[in-house]
């Protein structure tokens, strides 16, 4: 068994645990409760905003129903102590995947600097105008593509 974040021995489980005071409880029930509360709050906001003016309460309920699952998942991710999960690596930062990620991210950053520098230089001398939104979208696409290709190369090598 692996120790929890506070150093006490805690049995690992499929869905993990969360520390409440001095004891450990399953992470799913509080995640469901808090996720439902958050979805209800968003539903109230949806009602107040009158997204569908003819039926504001219905729009609030629709917002709450549409957001409850993602919010429960988000709350679980924020609450669970990863050291209590079955199969979780004890030191994920030392994994081979983390190494691939680090190499791909640092290479992609260099690519972004190079492409944006060359692009700015070219646009400074070119007689064309580019909207800021389009330029930023191009930078994001370069970043995605560069990281994806570099990660795939690192994965194939490793």
From TrEMBL:
Parts of the chain that traverse the membrane: 24-45, 57-79, 100-125, 131-153
Q: Which domain of life is it from?
A: Bacteria
Instruction: From the Swiss-Prot or TrEMBL record, give the protein name.
Output: Uncharacterized protein
Q: Which UniProt keywords apply?
A: Membrane, Transmembrane, Transmembrane helix
Please give the organism. Answer: Rhodococcus rhodochrous J3
